[in-house]
Fold:
Amino acid sequence: MPSSNVSFEALSGVLRTLRTLLERFQTSLSAPTAPSPILEPPNALSVLHDSSSLLRAQTTKLSLLLLNKPFTASAIASIITSFNGEILPSLMAVDEICCERRYSHSLHNEIRSQLRDLLPGLLALIGQIPKDEIQIGGLERKREEILKYTGHVWQACDRLIRLADLGIVGLAVEKAEAYYALLKDAVEEVEGWNPDDEEEDDLFDESNSESDVERKANGARRSGDSYMDGKMHSIQLSDQPPGLDALQITDMHATKDSALKALKLIRMLYPAVLKRRISIFPPFTRTSSLTDIPPRAHLEILDHLLRHLHQLSEETDEMAGALYGRDVIEVRRRLEALKALARECFEGVKKDWGGKDDEFSIWIAKWDGRVGEVTVGRAV
Structure:
């Protein structure tokens, strides 16, 4: 049997093994993480960093071998063997040992999400590998696909490496800052909303389609001068937007003012919590010893805090939408929910991570009092 056939047989064998591993990995990432059977697991962030870095390097080699002549099946088989024997098993182990009770729910979920994103690109890349000598001639036509899937794997590896470098605190800070940016955008929307200007809201009303406008214009022409006279008369009688009386508009102004008072207080919460609690959370990175893993109770508090900061930003955006929709009752309902949610947010962080009162403890008590003073006006 020619040596080239032997090389392709060996390549086909390791490719089958790799596909089986990748499919098994995809299935495991879609299910809840099983408890790790490893009694003394290594630092999951260190394993993640090293295996992702190695995968990126080996993917680069694989891409170069596919794009340049001559095609060497044995060299490619060697790279695939490293995927099977070291890289994929290490990444699969990360999913097990980086459990949320040790590394936080936030970091655990983020790593799983990035691993899920990695696998389709890797599967697609190995799908470009020729299975025999006849398919070698088609590699030139696959150049763009090879580059595209190589880039996908690179980006996924870079994100995993970055996660390993960020660690628990770095990721928490990044997420809190992202939620803060979303909340500030929503508050700016509320600040820019003018209850007196209904035309601004109607710009996004799907009912104002071209056919509706034409139908109204045709109706005006059919009604003659009496129709236009009536419309002009109604405009002269009132400067208020159609369908709204002065009391309703006054009520909307009061609702907006109440909402802004609460939202500005909530907006103050983010930088304070970031500086006084999240940024000083006990650090754990890929270079840390396992003895430095934060207590489980602290990790649960951190997850609770991030979850509520996220919910606050989403609820604020929903309330802004209700304002633009002029649903006063819904705005007030969401405002009360926001106040309650904000208070729940800091429930576990009134004291520092050592369980003692500090400047933030005093500040949050005053902040809570001011939030309680924000009252919701009369409903229409």
